[in-house]
Amino acid sequence: MEKFTRLRERLGHIADVQAAQAVLSWDQETYMPAGGGEARAHQLATLGRLGHEMLTDDEIGTLLEAAAAEVAGLDPDSDETRIVQVTRRDRDKAVRVPASLVSDLARATALAQQAWAQARTQNDFASFRPHLERVLELTLQKAEALGYEESPYDALLDEYEPDMKASEVTAVFTHLRAELVPLVEAIAERPALDDACLRRDFSTAAQWAFGEAVIADFGFDFERGRQDRSAHPFSTNFATTDVRITTRVVENFLPSALFGTLHEAGHAMYEQGVDRGLDRTGLAAGTSLGIHESQSRLWENLVGRSEPFWEHYYPKLQGEFPDQLGAIDRAAFHRAVNRVEPSLIRVEADEITYNLHVMIRFELELELVAGTLAVADLPAAWNAKYEEALGLTPPTDADGVLQDIHWSFGLIGYFPTYTLGNLVSVQLFNQAAQDLGDLEGQIGNGEFAPLRAWLQEHVHRHGRKFSAQELLQRITGGGLDAEPWLDYARGKFGALYGI
Ligand code: ZN
Question: Which of these, 255, 346, 461, 485, could form a disulfide with 426 (CB 3.0-4.6 Å)?
């Protein structure tokens, strides 16, 4: 195993460079003074190039071949075999994209992000348009370089949801949408749920402390993680022993910080739960964005917006905020945090309509990639889809096509993973409930250790050893399925809305 050992040393160095890059990115979003932006862009670009050069280096290629021969006799599911297999996949992809395209994309997306921020503030899509055209053109070149069987979209989707095809997403989304639209319509015909109790003044310090107490109960390890503030919540990790989350606190809207914290802690516990044996390899991370999102949504929605959860926590929350919530009963509070309402902004959407926002973006991306929709026509196409799916037309492009940062980063093929995560979260939760017995009772008692341990055993510890499909197959005996989520949604919201 001499070559394998040498390969691991080299992978350790690459992981170190990538971790340093992640630390600088985290700092940029949390503590860096505004003046540091230009210097930070250089630092990040240099580390990015260095990591890419180290992975595509010929010596890694030679070591990979030799290590593959060394591990050939081992269990195909052993760490060693999977480290060789997944690293090979990553390296093959990295080698296929020319260095000139990597740097062209880095430059174009850096400019596009700045243009997007300004265009959004000034509600000026025309100023963003040439940047998005350039990013799209380069992203399509990247898809060609990476290669694909059916559609260039597959090559892009593969960056976030390995081995999944656009046609598979289309099939799942078509079924989901056909069932979702009547549910949204039925909800719209019922009286709206009152969420005024969430819009009172809640001290930011008390909100912060409450959220951290809940995730400590969930099993987020503050010895190996911390939470800070940022404009947009995110999670990142530098090692399984150092995982960071951020949140934002809105004084007069309770759900922002609380559910943001639960969501990001779900991502973070996945990273904290990866087997230490995979440390300092490319496998010490979540296996796909869909599986990652399944973890955040599971803790945020299936646990955090459930009745048993509030049986346990509502008295504590009332204790923290007696003036604001003392006269609101638990059932009313539970209804408030589950209010469904078609809206224009994806990140503020409820559990149900959120998926329609995702589908709209996916459909538009497919057309942009196929060349059947021009960037110039994107705002009109966006607005038409919102009217059709949600019955709303954005009054401005800032509330419409300019709301998300993703496309300015070149993140095309990313959006579907949000809904895939919602679907998978229910598949996993159902299996956990079957294996653990009285999961609802455990949640109602504030006992999260069994659920956390189940996820650790079946999902977290494997890191990237198994693909999303392999994980689902191992856990549920089947593949991705929208039906469990639909059953959950019909059951929960049917009861809440009296449908
Ligand atoms: Zn997330």
Answer: 485
Candidates 495, 490, 491, 481; CA nearest to 184 is 490
The alpha carbon of 296 and the centre of ligand 1 are apart by a number of angstroms equal to 6
Query: What b/e readout covers 215-249, taking b as 16+ CB neighbours within 10 angstroms?
Result: beebbbeeeebebeebeebbbbbbbbebbbbbbeb
Domain boundaries for CATH 1.20.58 within the chain: 2-147
pLDDT by residue for the chain (499 residues), tens only, comes to 999 999 999 999 999 999 999 999 999 889 999 899 889 888 988 999 999 999 999 999 999 999 999 999 999 999 999 999 999 999 999 999 998 898 889 889 988 988 999 999 999 999 999 999 999 999 999 999 999 999 999 999 999 999 999 999 999 999 999 999 999 999 999 999 999 999 999 999 999 999 999 999 999 999 999 999 998 899 999 999 999 999 999 999 999 999 999 999 999 999 999 999 999 999 999 999 999 999 999 999 999 999 999 999 999 999 999 999 999 999 999 999 999 999 999 998 999 999 999 999 999 999 999 999 999 999 999 999 999 999 999 999 999 999 999 999 999 999 999 999 999 999 999 999 999 999 999 999 999 999 999 999 999 999 999 999 999 999 999 999 999 999 999 999 999 999 9
Taking the CB of residue 22, how many other CB atoms lie within 10 A of it? 18
Are 271 and 220 spatial neighbours (Cβ–Cβ below 8 Å)? no
Catalytic residue IDs: 264
CATH 1.10.1370.30 in the chain, residue ranges: 166-497
Q: How far is the CA of 63 from the centre of ligand 1 (A)?
A: 36
What's the CATH fold of domain 2-147? Methane Monooxygenase Hydroxylase; Chain G, domain 1 (1.20.58)
CATH of region 166-497: 1.10.1370.30
Q: 67 exposed, middle or buried (CB, 10 Å; 0-12, 13-18, 19+)? A: buried
DSSP 3-state assignment of 191?
A: coil
